Amino acid sequence: MLIAILSDIHDNLPKLRAAIDHIRPVDALLCGGDLCSPFIVDELVKFPRQLHVVFGNNDADLFRITQKVNAANRNRAAEDQIQLHGEFFEGELGGKRIALIHFEQIGKALVRSGQYDLVCYGHTHQYSVERDPASGAIRGLNPGEIFGLLRADSESTFVSYDTESGAVRKHVIDASGRVTSQPV
Q1: Which domains does the chain have, with CATH numbers?
Q2: How far apart are CA 184 and CA 167, in angstroms?
């Protein structure tokens, strides 16, 4: 199973559109929060398969975000419903135990717990990977930010994760909306 993971959208519609267009072939999408405005749901629903979302510290209008998701789910197959998980998601995707939370400090603690094959988190807007010291397998992922405007050196990034091989690819969205990818 191929999973895309993104976080910290912060209303950047052009970069989100580029990411969604690029990830259409994947099997599932994990969104680590900070959508910010309810209109971001209008773009997320363009991803046609299962979508898991947790909220971050900048998701202020949870009522309207939830309303938009409920309306969108009326037109989606049951297996492809957008799932809002509050602040924490844990589940099995592609035979892997996966956790998703917005906050990096909690995410890193979850990695250390050893309960999950992969823990995804965001909040810092900085791409990072944590590997298991013994096996070298990737256990923690911060996909960076879709926003891409926080600092002068910020870049818009997201990742994809193959549950069968454990391979991770980093995807970078440039100013024109072009996506380039590299293995991690």
Answers
A1: 2-183 (3.60.21.10)
A2: 7
Beta strands, E only, 7-64: 28-31, 50-53
pLDDT in tens, 118-166: 999 999 999 999 999 889 899 999 999 999 987 878 899 999 999 999 9
Q: Which DSSP category does 73 fall into?
A: H
Decide: 102 and 55 in contact? Cβ < 8 Å: yes
How far, in Å, are 6, 17, 59, 72, 76 from residue 43 at the CA level?
Answer: 13, 7, 16, 11, 14
Structure tokens at 142: 């911060």
Amino acid found at 13? L
H-only helix segments in 74-143: 104-113
Length of the chain equals 184
